[in-house]
């Protein structure tokens, strides 16, 4: 009887699949990402729960948004445009405790990805995007609480309802210095090669 893979198993398969697509050995990916070969090997065997910072380094080296590392492997079945709440993948960063929920339907070609994040009080996490060949574009809509966002030399204090647009080509730091959790929605552009025209004719009439 088949069992549903854990989130660590999904991440393991995605990292391994993307590494092979790029033709990288473990040693090469380690050099590009700054993550040790042994750590990458553990991640690919789903023998460790990698932190957000580590996954961010791997995503940058593999030239994909972090959200892509949480996608389910390609299926022979036709991708569905609806992702039920119960089907959406949730992942918790073992270092900070922040929780990200992948909202977008898995495998469905679309020009953006939606992610919901619940960020604990007193925590921060940094992602280095400086080595990307093309900057990714992201918008953050703060639904609850407050957040401090730094992008390179720019800094913003976000309050509930604020929306911030960013080009991810520098180090970005997310920080919640308050005493309450923050919750926000991230909308990220997909990479050009992943975007395909969507045929809406089947939904009309």
Instruction: Name the strands of the widest sheet in spatial order.
Output: 1-2-3-10-5-8
Distance between the termini: 40 Å
Radius of gyration: 17 Å
Number of helices: 4
| Strand tally | 10
> How would you state the average pLDDT, rounded?
86
Helix content: 10-25%
Largest sheet descriptor: 6 strands, antiparallel
Order of helices and strands: HHHHEEEEEEEEEE
- Low-confidence parts lasting 5 or more residues at pLDDT below 50? 192-205
Shape: globular
Quickly give the structural class: alpha+beta
What percent of residues are in strands? 25-35%
Give an account of the 3D structure.
By secondary structure, the protein is an alpha+beta fold. It contains four helices and ten strands. The strands form two sheets. The protein has a six-stranded antiparallel β-sheet with strand order 1-2-3-10-5-8, with no helix packed on it. The protein has a four-stranded antiparallel β-sheet with strand order 4-9-6-7. The longest helix has 15 residues, at 7-21. The chain is globular. The model is unreliable at 192-205 (pLDDT under 50).
